[in-house]
Amino acid sequence: MKSPEAMASGRGVISLRFNQDQDTELMGSVSRCEMLYRSNLLAVVAGGSRPKFAENTVLVYDDVSKKFVLEFTFSDPVKAVRLRRDRQVLRDFYMKLVVALCQHIHVFTFPAPAQRMFSIETRENPLGLCEVTPFLTAERQFLIFPGHKAGSVQLVDTNIVIDIKIRRLKWLGHIIRMDNNRIPKILLDVKPNGKRRVGRPKLRWLDDVQDDLFKDLANTEAGMSCAPVTINAHRGELACLAVNQQGTLIATASSKGTLIRVWDTARRNQLVELRRGSDPATLYW
């Protein structure tokens, strides 16, 4: 490889190669790694021939302090992991960690404090197909993963807090309509006897429901829906998913690998169909 000046003078670098050795002393061999935008944080999942950690653990590594700062452990092996900035409070950014297992997707927020926001049960997802809108300023904030029906895609607004509040109110209505001898109805109306400890009372589930009803959801824009949406993209199982930076388009491919389809996330309709050929193939994003 020669620079233009070197080629003009007949001298220069003839060959250039990078060192491909991997330092496995710190974290061992790695199967998956996700960077948080352009930052010093990396989400790492061990795997390969010389793993140092379990494959059901996600470690968040800080490249500035040169150490692991967070650890998330699950009951099943981790199939995929995604990171993105979530929101800004004063000068601090909160991050969102999305972890895909074979039949579940877990969403966490961190760093202060790290806590699980919600979990979703999914169709069997051995490839760990899962995408999230990368930018905080994107037009549409979506979490995208395979739906329960073969070949379908499910879209969940990552402002999932509103969706959780709506579901909580639906569950309250379901309990109210229950017979009085049902256990959830009894627990809803129960009033424990005795004295509580000194200090502020702990928040009850009904306290959250009241806040949902009179504070948060009352300020939600009219016509805005955060309910999950399903797109029947293919007849066969999904093999690949991708989303654009603004969250307005998603691309899907099936396990057959002959078609790539592009969908509008707002209208849920197909925009483009690209045919690769008639022979089956494995597609990668």
TrEMBL record:
Protein name: Uncharacterized protein
Keywords of the record: Autophagy, Repeat, WD repeat
UniProt cross-references to InterPro entries, sorted A to Z: PROPPIN, WD40/YVTN_repeat-like_dom_sf, WD40_repeat_dom_sf, WD40_rpt
SMART domains per record: WD40
Keyword presence, Repeat: yes
Signal peptide location: none
Family: Belongs to the WD repeat PROPPIN family.
